[in-house]
Amino acid sequence: MKNPADFKPEHFLWHFESGVATITFNRPERKNPLTFESYAELRDTFRSLTDSDQVKAVVITGAGGNFCSGGDVHEIIGPLTEMDTAGLREFTTMTGDLIIAIMSCPQVVITAIDGVCVGAGAAIAMASDLRFGTASSKVAFLFVRVGLAGCDMGACSILPRIIGQGRAADLLYSGRVMDGAEAAHCGFFNRMHEPSDLASEAATFARRIADGPTLAHAMTKEMLVREWDMNAIDAVREEAIAQAKCMETQDFHRAYHAFVKKERPRFAGD
Q1: Which end of the chain has the least Cβ crowding within 10 Å, N or C?
Q2: 251, 159: one domain
Q3: Per-residue pLDDT tens digits for 137-195
Q4: Residue 68's beta-bridge partner residues?
Q5: Which of 111, 34, 100 is nearest to 70 (CA)?
Q6: Distance CA 69, CA 120 (A)
Q7: CB 46 within 8 Å of CB 105
Q8: How far is CA 213 from its chain centroid?
Q9: Which residue range(s) make up the domain with 220?
């Protein structure tokens, strides 16, 4: 992504300011469902962020008091029933690639969730680094309700790491709705806010990330994912390598000199 200020997606809103990109699902009349085209554009957008040194944090939210109602019943679910094996596999690979792109981009991704957050919307929230919610939010991994398995978009791997195996199994087998209080209690939501404060609180936190040592944040994000498959000893060794790389950055040197001068460091992301 060469110039994020000039980026104009077709299937969602995009706003870029002060290092923070905000993606807004914008089909409020249908509670912001996804289509084949919006899946693909989201995937490609997060892939392009890998090469962006201007976007330092991302907020994903929804318009009209809801986050995302998942795949559109008429524009996705219906057509899927008519597809052959190759077409179905192409679709499920694409949706999985969106999750991989969110988890692989170096930026910290924050979802601001109010109202409905179900199906693929819940999976996108799950793949984000942090989730801010409201008491009126409703989270559901409802794949089982349409005759599908809970193992969609990485849910059987990622969700248990956030809320634990037992709670994840409950949600994935039942497809039931988890309200905001439960989502906060089990750790799915990192923070809770009033609906009127949600957007501003997410933006404030994202700006704080953007003003921080973004290369170090990217390293933290990378290691949080990579260390899933490591034993503790290998993780310690890998973190030694990662931290040594961070010690070579100018931001590390800036922090030291600011500390000596009793000043607040001004990070530049290099």
Answers
A1: C
A2: no
A3: 999 999 999 899 999 999 999 999 999 999 999 999 999 999 999 999 999 999 999 99
A4: 117
A5: 34
A6: 7
A7: yes
A8: 20
A9: 214-260
